[in-house]
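User: Design a sequence. Structure:
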């Protein structure tokens, strides 16, 4: 009976430590056999206004489909960013440094002229949009 009790607590400890290690690391499993093959959803976050001539940063991340989605964040590095009107705002892709496995996909949106646009990110059959209002440049 005592051996069973020790085994139960050891197995529980290994499970808890493993879960803490896995959730504490931002692991990209998209290329791993048995890893997530799709996305449950994508989110695109950041400021909603930018002045003409200035830039803002938007970041995309996703949740993998299935049970693994509760434990991992998908950095959406294969995301394609577009803007609804390229005369109002431009997309400037930010590429993470070599070896960076924790960054999510990010872009800079540069205000070109006054107006409103929708920035869209698409990956693996899912997409998300974020409204951006381009306002006049402030004068000093």
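Assistant: Done.
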């Amino acid at each position: 009976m005592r051996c069973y009790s020790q085994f139960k607590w050891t197995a529980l400890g290994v499970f808890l430590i493993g879960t803490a290690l896995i959730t504490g690391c931002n692991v990209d499993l998209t290329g791993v056999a048995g890893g997530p093959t799709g996305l449950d959803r994508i989110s695109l976050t950041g400021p909603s206004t930018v002045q003409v001539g200035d830039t803002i940063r938007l970041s995309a991340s996703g949740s993998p489909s299935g049970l693994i989605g509760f434990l991992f964040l998908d950095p959406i590095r294969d995301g394609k960013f577009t803007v609804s009107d390229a005369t109002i705002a431009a997309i400037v892709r930010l590429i993470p440094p070599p070896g960076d496995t924790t960054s999510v996909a990010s872009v800079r949106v540069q205000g070109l002229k006054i107006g409103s646009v929708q920035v869209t990110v698409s990956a693996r059959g899912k997409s998300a949009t974020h409204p951006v209002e381009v306002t006049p440049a402030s004068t000093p």
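The chain has a mean pLDDT of 77. The CA atoms of residues 96 and 103 lie 7 Å apart.
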